[in-house]
Amino acid sequence: MSSPKAVGLGFVGTGxxxxxxxxxxxxxxxxxVVIVGDLxxxxxxxxxxxxxxxxxxTSEDVLAHPDVEIVVNLTIPAAHAEIASxxxxxxKHVWSEKPxxxxxATGRALLDQAEAAGLLVGVDRHATSxxxxxxxxxxxxQRCPTAAAGTRQVITRLTAS
Length: 161
Fold this sequence. Notes:
Layout: E1 7-12, H1 17-25, E2 31-37, H2 41-50, E3 56-57, H3 59-64, E4 70-73, H4 77-89, E5 93-96, H5 104-117, E6 121-125, E7 128-132, H6 147-160
Parallel strand pairs: 1-2, 1-4, 2-3, 4-5, 5-6
Antiparallel strand pairs: 6-7
Helix pairs in contact: 1-6, 4-5
């Protein structure tokens, strides 16, 4: 029996919280961080070098990367919905730091966009995974020891599909 292909991740936002995600997600065999992007491209380059990520650049570079299946959205809250919407439009699943958006209407529109595209959206909410998916019920009650473990739940769902 062959093992499943590693899920390709791309990060948008390489500020302080990215260390926690990168430390964890670069250690899993079924995950491959393929690119990190940030408005500050030098910060993205430093994170790529620190965690042995093969590519770095802008958010546009992350969204256009053919090996990215999930975009890990670590931008500022005011940019979460915009980046997530762009990722969905690019055909990528999204994992985002909280909040999903800064207002309810934008958040609902984002989830509707993902559902219409058949894509998953996960949001970290203080170590609780809120997974909105088309394959089954949401998993809002599943506790995660870290934000990276929540991302891992999305990856597990993708590799099991």
